[in-house]
Write a structure and sequence with these properties.
The complex is a heterodimer of chains A (169) and B (250). With 169 residues, chain A is an alpha+beta fold. Chain A contains 2 helices and 10 strands. Chain B is globular, with a radius of gyration of 23 Å. Classes of the chains: A alpha+beta (169), B mainly alpha (250).
């Protein structure tokens, strides 16, 4: 509290230190406001937690894609349930996301044009995920693909890997 | 016949029951007419007096009133649709189909709700442009302009949340795209999208969330804000009238 304010209110009770005396009413008022503020923040945090589900009934992010022999060399196979392309080139396998990096539509593989095309806003990608034309801002990500002990392909959609990593079978 | 009806009405207004409801007897003077409006919960926010020129069609094209009328139609038809609609997959899509092809007059009510919703977005925008170009946002109407802008956003959110409810391909991809736009927000985008959808994909949680927003939260908010909006029209001195209107020319 500045000196001018104290001068403006000469009737105000003063303490030795020159600070403003806090009346009981002011004190209780501030305590109440503080408590309401804490309760409000806590309520907001609890509400946010309540609205974030802990268990989701969504398709699994890790899945098996079957035996490698199912996929001929130089092929792009769309797995609809998982929204992933399994691409087999002479050098090996990789898994490319089928979800457009623009606004989340599911893309389509067009073998006649050798492109992955998005039906929503016209983005185009090469079969390795590289962007040919927008509005998509980025290439389609590659997911980690491994071979299980019993010889099946396994894809983990939570693990994005570099585009030059290929699974050799 | 006509005179006996008026006599009947006049006698009714003198009865104890009428007076207990409306407080006043017959509204024969300007003062009692004003008091009758003030003392009625459903009328008290209306202007007691209205200038004749503000009631001319060209003054407002009744765009605000028409928007409100559409809102009432949407509430009534929406409540009726709720009797056949389950906000769950796969019921939602089937219920929408049933409403179109099985339920008596269902297609009429659904289309009234659907087309009415499109019209309401159109009329609310039209109303806003009309108010804007007439300078209706200027003092003392500044606050009511802000309330109107919030009402525009509530209308758009109602339209958007309702769009998901048929649970068809159009709805699914519209909401997938729309909520991916949310996730473009810096820092909190993906969290807001997760909470809005109740998951990572547009699924049953998202359908239920959009349903609750569409049928409870947003309509209540709209009712509240419409009340404030109309009340402020009265308190800010009635409908805006341009000075040009005073000479009867436009």
């Amino acid at each position: 509290m500045s000196d001018t304010r104290q001068d403006a209110l000469p009737a105000q009770a003063m303490h030795g230190g020159g600070g403003k005396e806090l009346t009981r009413r002011d004190f209780l008022g501030e305590i109440t406001l503080g408590a309401l503020g804490v309760a409000g923040l806590g309520g907001a945090a609890l509400t946010y937690q309540y609205f974030s589900p802990n268990v989701l009934f969504e398709p699994a992010t890790t899945f098996r894609a079957g035996n490698p022999d199912l996929y001929p060399v130089n092929s792009v196979s769309f797995l609809q349930d998982q929204q992933v392309y399994i691409v087999r080139t002479p050098s090996g396998f990789y898994a490319v996301s089928a979800v457009c990096t623009h606004l989340g539509c599911v893309t389509q593989w067009k073998p006649e044009a050798d492109v992955i095309a998005c039906p929503c806003h016209g983005s185009k990608f090469k079969p390795d995920g590289t962007k040919i034309e927008g509005p998509a801002p980025r290439a389609l990500p590659h997911f980690a693909i491994t071979l299980t002990a019993d010889g099946e392909l396994s894809v983990d959609k939570l693990q994005v890997i570099k585009a030059d990593q290929v699974l050799r079978v | 016949m006509a005179t006996s009806f008026i006599t009947l009405l006049e006698n009714l207004r003198e009865t104890r029951v009428w007076k207990s409801i409306f407080w006043r007897g017959p509204a024969l003077t300007n003062r009692t007419r004003s008091l009758a409006v003030f003392g009625n919960l459903f009328l008290h926010w209306l202007p007691v007096k209205v200038r004749e020129k503000s009631l001319r069609v060209r003054a407002a094209y009744y765009l605000g009133s028409l928007s409100f009328l559409l809102f009432l139609i949407l509430v009534i038809t929406g409540v009726l649709l709720m009797f056949y609609y389950h906000p769950a997959a796969p019921n939602a899509y089937r219920d929408m189909k049933d409403l179109r092809f099985v339920v008596s007059n269902g297609v009429f009510l659904r289309n009234m709700h659907r087309i009415g919703a499109h019209l309401m977005v159109l009329l609310v925008f039209w109303h806003m442009f009309h108010v804007f170009y007439r300078g209706g946002y200027k003092p003392p109407h500044e606050f009511n302009w802000v309330v109107g802008v919030i009402l525009l956003m509530v209308t758009l959110f109602l339209s958007y949340t309702g769009y998901l409810l048929p649970w068809d391909q159009l709805a699914f991809w519209a909401v997938t795209v729309g909520t991916n736009i949310i996730s473009a927000m810096p820092l909190i985008g993906s969290k807001v999208r997760f909470v809005a959808l109740g998951g990572n994909i547009v699924g049953e949680n998202a359908l239920l969330r959009f349903y609750v927003l569409h049928v409870v939260i947003l309509p209540l908010l709209a009712f509240l804000l419409i009340g404030v909006h109309f009340w402020r029209v009265q308190k800010d001195g009635g409908l805006t009238v341009r000075s040009k209107d005073d000479d009867g020319k436009n």
